[in-house]
């Protein structure tokens, strides 16, 4: 069984954090939903898993990416910090760059041609 090659971006930080599409999608979900729980549900993950990923990201940057408030009678919520929005925007920009700049190379790979470095 063969499948077409696809591009994906995964960043490996010296701090040990790996940041890829899943974490970016979680940040985007938090931005859109205003809730870690709702963002996690949207992605098919438990609140515990979503919260764990948020804690991991928050711990590896100079300041938190997500600011959250506890639930209760008025409910809780979460939002991206300025740094969180910047990290998400930079990641999405890198994804776009990879997709655009890699399209020709990927097309050659799909066609079965030999890759020639330029």
TrEMBL record:
InterPro entries: LysR_HTH_N, Molybdate_resp_trans_reg, WH-like_DNA-bd_sf, WH_DNA-bd_sf. Pfam families: HTH_1. One of its GO terms (molecular function) is DNA-binding transcription factor activity. Residues 29-85 form the HTH lysR-type domain. This is Molybdenum-binding transcriptional regulator. It comes from Paracoccus kondratievae. The gene is modE.
């Amino acid at each position: 069984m063969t499948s077409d090659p696809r591009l994906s971006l995964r960043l490996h930080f010296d701090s040990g954090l790996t940041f890829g599409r899943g974490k970016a999608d979680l940040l985007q979900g938090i931005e859109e939903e205003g809730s870690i729980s709702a963002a996690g549900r949207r992605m098919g993950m438990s609140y515990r898993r979503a919260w764990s990923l948020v804690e991991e990201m928050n711990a590896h940057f100079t300041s938190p990416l997500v600011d959250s408030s506890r639930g209760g009678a008025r409910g809780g919520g979460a939002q991206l910090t300025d740094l969180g929005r910047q990290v998400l925007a930079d990641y999405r920009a890198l994804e776009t760059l990879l997709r655009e700049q890699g399209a020709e190379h990927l097309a050659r790979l799909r066609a079965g041609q030999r890759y020639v470095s330029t």
